[in-house]
Amino acid sequence: MRVLLVGAGGVGTAVTRIAARRPFFEVMVVADHDPARAESAVAALGEAGSRFRAERVDARDEAAVVALLERHSCDVLLNATDPRFVMPLFRAARTAGADYVDMAMSLSRPHAERPYEECGVRLGDEQFAHAEEWEKASALALVGMGVEPGLSDVFARHAADELFDTIEEIGVRDGANLTVDGYDFAPSFSIWTTIEECLNPPVVYEADRGWFTTEPFSEPEVFDFPEGIGPVECVNVEHEEVLLVPRWVPARRVTFKYGLGREFIETLRTLHLLGLDRTDPVTVPGPAGPVAVSPRDVVAACLPDPATLGERMHGKTCAGTWVRGVKDGAPREVYLYHVVDNQWSMKEYGCQAVVWQTAVNPVVALELLATGVWSGAGVLGPEAFPARPFLDLLTAYGSPWGLREQ
Amino acid sequence: MRVLLVGAGGVGTAVTRIAARRPFFEVMVVADHDPARAESAVAALGEAGSRFRAERVDARDEAAVVALLERHSCDVLLNATDPRFVMPLFRAARTAGADYVDMAMSLSRPHAERPYEECGVRLGDEQFAHAEEWEKASALALVGMGVEPGLSDVFARHAADELFDTIEEIGVRDGANLTVDGYDFAPSFSIWTTIEECLNPPVVYEADRGWFTTEPFSEPEVFDFPEGIGPVECVNVEHEEVLLVPRWVPARRVTFKYGLGREFIETLRTLHLLGLDRTDPVTVPGPAGPVAVSPRDVVAACLPDPATLGERMHGKTCAGTWVRGVKDGAPREVYLYHVVDNQWSMKEYGCQAVVWQTAVNPVVALELLATGVWSGAGVLGPEAFPARPFLDLLTAYGSPWGLREQ
């Protein structure tokens, strides 16, 4: 297998460090708009980096991405950029005849009149519109294959395959107790993506109603996370699992709730109130005359790069899927989860917990595809594939998952 | 009198509309970095605009300001820009031999080690450092001559002259009940200046201690504002009056509290937490490569221009000075205040209440200087001049002030 990894930020860099220990691929080309980031990711691998090449590419430039895929004869494009670049990279892979894996799906747009009741363009709609084309070409786009979405979807499939006869509700629940020394406010994941997830209308699925939306931060609940993280306030957030799971796993209700905590919710509300979550440019004075910038990019530029915070970070992050249903005639409720301790991921990989946890899952998936354990064609979510081999290989990577009967 | 008005934003435009009704000056040159703003301020005066000229000038370009003052033989420069431009305009006036009037003073810098206990560079320090030079030249820099500082300082002087034998405390108190239709968040005054005032360490004066600072938003109190505005939560804020009043009016304690309200305080705290109050540039991606912008300028660009909100605004704004002391052996407590109803200022002048209230005071002051009722040399605050003529002329402008015995 020959892989083009696009994006050498926090997650992309972690992908290289995890993949470098696995023999399943021949070459991984690491491309970033900033060639120094790509080079530094490869250089950091030292002797283990012989299968890696650094390149420069603008993820918006489809023709350049196609040329890069062809020049290196890549079989698959792994997209580790932010969700703005999903569509050009997805199209470039198809044009070049490569398979495609991402960790976030094409962006949603709220319903014009009833944004907090009905879906407009849903997450992934733009990609699923091309499903038939990929299927006919016997090509695979494996979408939403990070940790959430990704491992959370694998958990949902595992629950349906082995743990339940019928499922009432699948609720992805994400929480952490991470703190960062020396910063009053330092998100542990891309603020661009976090704003996108949290301020878009949250989407909920119900079998008799289909997909619908609510007000941001709806249905708050306190969820008790395992391994010492403890109770965290979670609220509905727009997330890919709600769009993916019902396509392959029958359930009466699917939700995603994010353990943001009160302070973070208020911070996001304020950014929205001031219009600082906007992505369309505003004009501001610059030293050499007026310049156009996206306010959300400015928010990101004012905060520390989450990928650089690992040394100052303490605590654990938990991704998981809570499932309620019936097994052998009796009610059952489980939480399937994966916890990463920042101290462990820093020591083992030099990567902070949140980006490491995101990055390990697409590498596991690539290995399953390379070895033929997973195969398929079309635009498919992680729950379209058998879950057991994935969970076993994840454990073999040294990062086991857990099951808590509720 | 020939006046150069620098700044044709909300306050500058209101200055032209107020001044246009008064005969005391021959010419007012209206200059802005954006020539369209200057032209539109003058054009809006219609037939009443014959004494006004529009010009373009960069307030940072001292030589250009000097040239403009000389070309139009101006006697006085009225600065209606934001406080960043105080020093170049103050210096340019001195160089050209013109008098100078502003509504905010040169900026402070917090104490490097003990920012919330001791003053670093104080508001106005840079201007007062040149006091002797102005005095020797028999030239006048009348500083802090808006509404607050400005009218609030005149009230303090009036209290000392006519209402008290000894003064215990002078506390400027500012509050409003303004709302803006169609906006969840729309400050009624320059957000750049508001952030500067509110996030800098507040300064307090005590006779036995001198000037010192506190944590932002300290000493909250609920102050009951007159004319139906009612109770508003006020907190300590850095403001010029605390630096000006003690130089000319004896008082044991001088404070400034701003009726920000809970939501606004939390919004400012969040901006600070995220570093979005910063003025030093950050680098962000732009359509044509990375650009450097000041985060605070981006915050301002995301909000509506307060000067344009008059039509959608409702309510009143109150500026005033609360004084506690002794008169004829008995304790006395008064609140001297000036209220502007937005409906009135829009109907009479097409200006919203907050900018109109700021703008009327320097025009009154210019008229007192033009007619010789006020005169002086050096760097002087409004409380250095007799208060009664100012208050009488303000009333003659159709905008009376009030006194409430507490």
Automatic annotation (TrEMBL), chains A, B:
Organism: Streptomyces lincolnensis
Protein name: ATP binding protein
Pfam families named in the record: Sacchrp_dh_C, Sacchrp_dh_NADP
Top-rank taxon, per record: Bacteria
